[in-house]
Amino acid sequence: MNRMTPPRNRVFCALDTADAEHAQRLAAALAGTVGGLKLGLEFFTANGPGGVAALRASGLPIFLDLKFHDIPNTVAGAVRAAAALGPRLLTVHAGGGGAMIAAARAAAEEGAAAAGHPRPRLLAVTVLTSLDAAALAATGVAGTLDAQVRRLARLARDAGADGAVCSPHEVAMLRDACGPDFLLVVPGVRPAWAAAQDQKRVMPPAVALAQGADLLVIGRPITGADDPAAAARRIQSELAGGA
Ligand code: C5P
After folding, report:
1. Cα 168 to Cα 77: distance, rounded to the nearest angstrom
2. Which end of the chain is more exposed for a tag (fewer CB within 10 A), N or C?
3. Which 3-state string (H, E, C) describes 150-188?
4. Closest atom of ligand 1 to CA, residue 130
5. What pLDDT shows up at residue 7?
6. Candidates 66, 69, 217, 235: which one to mutate for ligand 1, based on the most atoms within 8 Å of Cβ?
7. Which of 214, 207, 182 is nearest to 192 (CA)?
8. Would the CB of 40 count as within 6 Å of ligand 1?
9. Which positions are catalytic?
10. Distance in Å, CA 18 to ligand 1 centroid
């Protein structure tokens, strides 16, 4: 099976902080209220593998969002090391090309197996949602943004990626382009009661799931709340239809 069995709770909380103690407090508070934690470059660069191991001890699945992008040999080495940390999900940039993605997929299997963990699912990042059409054109891409997202997602799928990280507004398109087994992990999600902050085109969690998202990444509406666990429970109860 390619698409992982979705956890009952489909919300991964993004812990975008370099502060390991803050992350640890959030993880302890959120255990049982979210489906997992997303750790990115900010946390990892500051706290390294030891920081990841400490958060894994919370028992929550980890999405290690390090967005690798380099030559295949270097990415394979990094993915092998990352997979040994036991994450549930890992990311690479699809723009690194098919050979890089295939090398990452093989390395994810090797690294996890050597450390006795299940294989992490490999997700591709297509076009960063911080790029608009003009910024994409400035990088030399001639087609539309949607066409580029679709092209990179298919390339990633064909090279062995299990899924993609995408904007909620790309979910329906990628579900159609990449099939029912392609895992779609979606940030840019906001409950009606939360501020959009710097996210430009947000979608409520239930709508993103209805469009075909498998997992939702939600950060500041939870981490910035006075009571993060209560915010996470509120999102869960809205998703369960008990709003
Ligand atoms: O706090 P917020 O809910 O906006 O956090 C969303 C998380 O998802 C952040 O970690 C952000 O870096 C990440 N992300 C995103 N848009 C993307 C890819 C990742 O917001 N296209």
Report:
1. 31
2. N
3. HHHHHHHHHHCCCEEECCHHHHHHHHHHHCCCCEEEECC
4. 21
5. 67
6. 217
7. 207
8. yes
9. 67
10. 15
Ligand 1 in reach of 209 Cβ (< 6 A): no
Residue 241 has a pLDDT of: 80
Ligand 1 centre from 50 Cα, in Å?
Answer: 23
How far from chain centre, in Å, is Cα 193? Answer: 23
Please report, for the chain, how many H helices and E strands are present, in that order. 10, 8
| Residue ID of nearest Cα to ligand 1 atom 8 | 187
Q: Which residues contact 106 (CB under 8 A, 6 or more apart)?
A: 76, 160
Please say whether the beta carbons of 204 and 192 come within 8 A: yes
Do residues 157 and 123 touch, judged by C-beta distance below 8 A?
Answer: no
Residue 147's contacts (CB-CB under 8 Å, 6 or more residues apart) are none
Give the pLDDT of the chain (243 residues) as one tens digit per residue: 345 566 689 999 999 999 999 999 999 999 999 999 999 999 999 999 999 999 999 999 999 999 999 999 999 999 999 999 999 999 999 999 999 999 999 999 999 999 999 999 999 999 998 889 999 999 999 999 999 999 999 999 999 999 999 999 999 999 999 999 999 999 999 999 999 888 888 899 999 999 999 999 999 999 999 999 999 999 999 998 855
Residue closest via CA to ligand 1's atom 13 equals: 187
